[in-house]
Amino acid sequence: MLCIRKGNRAAILSAVLERIKMRTIEWVNGKVKLIDQTLLPGKLKHVYVTTVPQMIDAIKTMKVRGAPAIGVAAAFGCVLGSDNLNETARKLIASRPTAVNLKWGVERMLRVGSRAKGQGSRRLKALLLEEALKLAEEDVQTNKLIGFYGNKLIKKGMNILTVCNAGALATVDYGTALGVIRAAHEAGKKIHVYPAETRPRLQGAKLTAWELKQGKIPFTLITDNMIAYHMQQGKIDIVVTGADRIARNGDTANKIGTYSAAVLAKVHGIPFYIAAPFSTIDLKTKTGKDIVIEERDPAEVTNIGRERIAPTNIKVANPAFDVTPAKYITGIITEKGILKPNKIS
Q1: Fewer CB within 10 Å of terminal CB in the chain, N or C?
Q2: Reported pTM
């Protein structure tokens, strides 16, 4: 376990990342090694998951988060629970309902389990691990292809708005929306990024800003309610966000606040792109109205960390995601190229 509590945290964390080239999620000596994202940016700590209940807890409490990352986490969870694969799969799928990659990853493992019937428990576990590792490597390559295609949309000197965290921390490595940004930066395009803080869990402020700083990508952190102002002032040229589920008609679920950013982009004539792997497209879901939206703990809204910021005994709404209708989306950047929302199926 690696803990950093004192001293120049930013410099230490940057040096650590450069030295060990860590991934968000890895299989190490029979355990699943995760970065505990709830402790960033103040502390970098790995947790080691050895049981299915631990994996479910890590997903529910967002120690591991981001649609692609939890898809891989769930696949590794199936390896840990291979002795009762069907029950393990059911529990993992129920842990977070909105992100389709989680179910997609589990279903891949179930297909392996089906093919391995009669081969014994040790052989089953070996085949499941082989598939989970394959899925993890595919994720990295997929993200780099998303970056490759998305980079074509980015012109030199562009100012890019992104919502929530769709970076390396939301994937195995490199990132989706942040992968596009990373690719543009690596191409020397002198971009500038505006990450929105993303209430209530502040993934933009805590995670995206942290990743951008480690990557030495120029950025300015803004609050969610500053998006309209910056667009009005001509400070945003393009919006690129991630996605947790894309319906067959192009409607897209992403972190709460994405829909308002898309509407504002439309009003100001700013292109709005989704960056996500093809596995995030759920052809079984006809429209955004069919997407189940996760409702999370009210304490995420009434508290920031341990400090309560709202009165006690009040009603609180805390939907974790919203749905952006396809009409507000310019295009969907995938590893297979850039798709028009109305031409998915």
Answers
A1: N
A2: 0.91
